[in-house]
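Supplementary Methods. Inverse-folding protocol.

Structures were first reduced to a discrete structure-token string of length 222. This string, shown here, constituted the complete conditioning input.
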């Protein structure tokens, strides 16, 4: 049980973010008002998504170098969980947009880039199911995963900063760190990132364990 201490921390941090994010005092900013609390959920989920997608591309690169099936499995699992968090981020972001911008979706570089990124990783999942040959599937998927990660960086980190955007931190629109002068939100924000990331790692561990069990069962049947 001692080796699972980090799982307890993951649960505590996420609960702390979910409950504390609703109770803590937040800056009373024009338009945003109480909706700024979504920062604790929408943004932190996307931070965790990017961490998991980074882990996914690292394992894809490791697979191309080692050819180990386990590296390919880890890349797939990390991408699956990252995609799940990304979809949650899109949903929570759309709800936030409705209350602050008056619509669930607007023609904004950051939002459009997020949609392209999510679609790119959905395509990764579809691509994986398009091949019967396991080695061929793993190699092509690994190469595509690198391409998808480049799209993530370009559409989420680079292009929005080069164009006008309503999204905080992009296109000359200041980030929340410049608004939050009293630092109270940081008490929830950073633990939430750690918590969601650890939950993602925990889910990945469970999925990897199931994968190994399926492989072992197939080997036993042969």
């Amino acid at each position: 049980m001692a080796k699972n201490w980090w799982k307890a921390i993951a649960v505590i941090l996420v609960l702390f973010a979910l409950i504390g994010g609703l109770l803590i005092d937040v800056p009373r900013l024009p338009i945003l008002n109480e909706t700024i609390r979504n920062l604790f959920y929408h943004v932190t989920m996307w931070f965790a998504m990017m961490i998991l997608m980074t882990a996914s591309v690292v394992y894809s690169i490791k697979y191309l170098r080692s050819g180990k099936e386990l590296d390919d499995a880890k890349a797939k699992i990390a991408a699956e969980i990252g995609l799940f968090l990304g979809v949650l981020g899109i949903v929570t972001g759309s709800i936030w947009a409705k209350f602050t911008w008056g619509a669930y979706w607007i023609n904004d570089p950051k939002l459009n880039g997020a949609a392209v990124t999510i679609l790119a990783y959905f395509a990764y999942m579809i691509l994986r199911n398009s091949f019967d040959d396991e080695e061929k599937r793993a190699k092509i998927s690994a190469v595509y995963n690198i391409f998808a990660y480049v799209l993530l960086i370009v559409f989420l980190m680079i292009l929005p900063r080069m164009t006008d955007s309503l999204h905080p931190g992009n296109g000359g629109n200041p980030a929340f760190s410049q608004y939050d002068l009293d630092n109270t939100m940081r008490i929830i924000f950073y633990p939430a990132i750690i918590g969601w990331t650890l939950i993602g790692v925990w889910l990945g561990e469970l999925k990897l364990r199931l994968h190994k069990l399926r492989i072992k069962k197939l080997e036993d049947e042969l």
